[in-house]
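May I ask you for just one protein sequence along with its backbone structure tokens in two labelled lines?

_____
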Amino acid sequence: MNLINKWHSYLDMPKHDINWHIQDVKDELEELEEAQGFIHKWSEISDVVYTYTRAKWSGHHELDFPLKKSHFYIGLVYMFPKYTLRWRFFRKIGKSFDRNIKITEVRNPKKIHKLEDIADKYNLDRDIFKKRSEKLLKRWILLK
């Protein structure tokens, strides 16, 4: 868990109370149940692993992993590149506005409503943020 905690510290996402993390894990489990196909299921397993390890990193050690132990390791393999790439993507967009903006987000950049939420959170123009995200997304093949 030490490497995972260092990685979460690097991403520096906000820590929340236990109820927030429990709901986050629950939401991801629901998305996993709806997933169709191998890659989609693997991606959703990685989301469950991410939310679980983020809760642990946030200090909530009483939370149990809700899937089989093998799913934890399978999810890790997908989790690290998926979330690191998203984090780097948003950092790059932030820097395009101002070198000092440090966006710490790992949401799916293909979902417009999430882009709008991020723009609002960082007080950035929604339309410009969406345009820059769409333009950069065309070059970031691995996020498609």
The two ends are 29 Å apart (CA to CA). The chain has a mean pLDDT of 94. The longest helix spans residues 69-97.
